[in-house]
Each structure stands twice: as C-alpha cells, then as structure tokens.
C-alpha cells in the first residue's frame, strides 16, 4: 500500500528535517514536492530572500526562523570574541545548523529552505552533515538552480543542436587556475557573479584566452518581475553597464547570472526573450480591491508580467438593523422563497455567516433555486457547496440576469417570492425588473459598504506621484473611493475601466480613460489592459525606442530607473 500524504510526514520522536530548494525567485517554480513539505512543516528556517516565496505555502501557526540572523539562547545576535557580529562562514554555518538541530530534537518537522538548489548552496551540505552526525533524519527536495532557471527566463538556451559543452563557475570564489581552464574552452559558460563584479569576470576570461567579441548576457533579478537583461560582448559589457547607469547596490552587490557564448547572441535572444517581452512586464498595477476579492484578477495580471498591488477602497460592515436579515434567513429555511439571488461575493459571505451563526449549512438551500451574477459570485457559492441554477448567459450584471430570469408562472412556481440579499447602496434595477416579471421581492440589506481607511503613506504617494503604471477601476464607487482616500492617480498612469458608467465617473474626476473592457468582466478588463500594453510595446520596438513602463515617463523617473 502506498503511503498517504499524512503518513508521508509522520515524524519520529527526534524530528525530521527537509532541505528544500526554493528556486531562483519566481514563486511558481516551487516543485509540487516542495509545496507538500511546506504544508506539513512545524518550523520553517529560511533566508530573507526566499522567505516570502516559501511562507505562502506553510500552514497557519508555523514557527518561522530567520537563517540570516542566528540567535543565541538569550535571543540576541551571536557575537564574536571581539564583540563584532559573526561573519559569513563557519559561525553562520554552526549557528544555522544549531537552529535546525534544536528544532528537530524537539520532535518538529523542520523545513530548511535555501535559494536555488540545496546541492549548490554554500552551507546546506555542512548542515546535512551536522544532522547526520546527530542522528536526525533528513531528506532533500531539489530546487531549480539560478544558473539554469535564470537563463531560461532570459531567453538564453545553454546548449544548441551541436550539443555545446556547458560549464558553470562562481566568479566570487573562482581561482586563477579555474579562469584559465574555462577561458581556454569555447563552450557555453554560465557565470554566477554580482552586477558590480561581472565586468571584472569578463576581463578574466579575455585574459585567459576568450575572444573579446564573444557574446554574453547579464541578467539581474532573474525569474522575477524585476528581471533585466543586458546583451553585450566580453569586451563591451563594462561600457554597456556604464551606459545603462546602473546604480551601485547599497549592500555591496546584486547577484547576477552571466551567460558567455554564441547561445547568448543578442539576435537570438531577441527572438527567445519570452519573459521580459510579456505585455505588462514589470508594470505596477493598482487593483482597488481586497486581496480576497482580487485573488484571481491578480493571478491573471501576474501571468501578463505585471506586479499587482491591492488597495481596498470599500469596507464591508454588518447592517445597522440585522433583524430583517435574520427573518429572511429563517424564511429561507421554512420555505418562504422560490428563488434566492446573489449579486456579489459579499452577499454570499453575509448569508453564509448567518447560516453558520444558526448552525446551518448548504443543505438549507434544498428545494430553492439559486441565481448568481458574475463568475466570482458563482465560485463563492460553489465553495459554499451550492451550485447556482441560473447565471446570466450574457452580460454579468443585474440587467443580464433579468434577460434570463423566467417570468412567474403560478402553474410551475408554487411560491412567488424571491430573497435578494444585497448591499445598502444597491440600485433598484433588479428589484423593479423582477416585479415586472411577476415576482414578489424581499429586498434585504445583507451588508453595508463604507469607504475604506486610507492606504499607507507610501502607497498614497505612489498613486499621486505616478509610481503605478496602471489602475483598474471595476465600478464607479472604486473611482470615487480611491480618489477620496488616496488622491487622484497621476496623469502618466494608464486608467482602465470596466464599462461606460465607470469610465464616465473617472472622467468626471478629471481622469483620462485609456482602456475599457469589451464587456463588464474584471478578467476581460485585465485582458484589455494586456492588449494595450502589447500594442504600446510593439510601437516602441517598431520605432526603435527603448521599451519603458508608463511610470518611467514621469519627471525624475529616468534617474530612478537605473536601479533594477
């Protein structure tokens, strides 16, 4: 019998450690096995650069320890004998290994996450040896190494059809003998370096025998939406980086992957650069919704290369007088209604909370027809255990729902009443339409919508100062509320609206509408923005101009752009 997921993580009394590769930066590059291990972890130990990638898959309540800041039993950073903090090297290895061993000996499932792949990590092997010596069982979950993943995202294949030899070197630890050996070869060379030292590494290769006109690419921020790649040659890379006006890193060095060889020729990379040529690559897109409401929309934006930033503009509160909602829910259980119609995710949430308050579940909907407006509302019902009987076949709105709603027929409909849980500011379109079709409607305030609190000061400044490349407005209220709590978006920001009514409100607030969805759907709106971005990129390429984001055209942005 094969082991189940639960007993796969059965932990002996002395605990267990999983050394896990978090990949080069893109959270989507975590393996299925890595996600499974993280979900079962009691303790997560990771460096800051991978913590956000792995923590999203850890269970609620997991203990998170920072491997970059080892702690002594007193809780203070460990100090060397001369009072200085311990440097990278033996002390850090020992301290991190102690963290791992202490947690494992407490009977915990420990996940030790490292960037890239554990087999290429400087300290992972040493930590594994400590576990082996201490009798603590461990396993290794490989990850995608930066030296392999970053070139793939940069559009640089490492081998061609002739089976080019590929060698890897870390410029930060390479000896003179190492440079002589790789310089004498003519295959593809993948160099791990820093943005500040890669030109010196190119000089070492030329001195060792590589031709100065050998193509190379240098990629910083690989596999993330901060990725940027420069194409040059060994002899020109120093000048190329100087012309790009790349600012020095405050911490002394940004890791980069450089690929040396014909595989990295600029003409070839132009055709294979699939990641950086995404229609919204690197765009900061403001989404005036909560993270819960914006989840699928934000995922879609990320697929276009964008960096979504959710800012709630509306807060949901219970109705001032809950008795009406309570009577309606009791009436639903006792057979008062033929239909219940949900026009928003918040309406589903409000009814579900009432159900839970009364100890009810989805079975209370038995015998009642359920209607839903919008795919997200329908998905919220399905998550509740209810499959809608009616979803508009056309426009996802109250008008679209009325187009498909059947008229009341006393022969086929034993009950003529509809339960409509809605917001306090909902329009009367649906109520009037249902009455016209012969139905009686209990229009119940299930929740109130109020203006949300202002976002943090840096977000407000980015909105007004042009720090966002685009904003998606999904209703007139999001326009009014965003302007009210954060100010009017800068005129370089691309304004995208879900429909004519929202666009009219935006224009009334002095905004120029650049994009409108072909139909009232948040996903159609995101797709329309992507089409706009693609057309803008194509126009720049055709004109021979550098492809820039809208935010880079505002005053002062040119100087800031040099920092990837």
Q: Could you list the spans in which at least 5 consecutive residues all have pLDDT below 50?
A: 1-12, 70-90, 558-564
**How many E strands?**
20
- The dominant shape is globular
Helix content percent band:
25-40%
Q: What do the pLDDT scores average to? A: 86
Number of helices: 21
**Which CATH class of the largest domain?**
Alpha Beta
Task: Please sum up the structure shown.
This protein has 564 residues and is an alpha/beta fold. The protein is 36% helix and 18% strand. The radius of gyration is 29 Å and the shape is globular.
Describe the structure.
The chain is of the alpha/beta class and 564 residues long. It has 4 domains: 13-144, 3-Layer(aba) Sandwich (Cobalt-precorrin-4 Transmethylase, domain 1), CATH 3.40.1010; 147-272, Methyltransferase, Cobalt-precorrin-4 Transmethylase, Domain 2, CATH 3.30.950; 284-313 and 453-561, Rossmann fold (3-Layer(aba) Sandwich), CATH 3.40.50.10090; 317-451, Rossmann fold, CATH 3.40.50. It contains 21 helices and 20 strands. The strands form 4 sheets. Strands 3-2-4-1-5 form a 5-stranded parallel beta sheet, with helices on both faces. Strands 6-7-10-8-9 form a 5-stranded mixed beta sheet, sandwiched between helices. Helix 13 (345-357) links the parallel strand 14 and strand 15 (369-372). Helix 4 (90-105) packs across helix 5, helix 13 (345-357) packs parallel to helix 14 and helix 18 runs parallel beside helix 19. The radius of gyration is 29 Å and the shape is globular. It starts with a helix and ends with a helix.
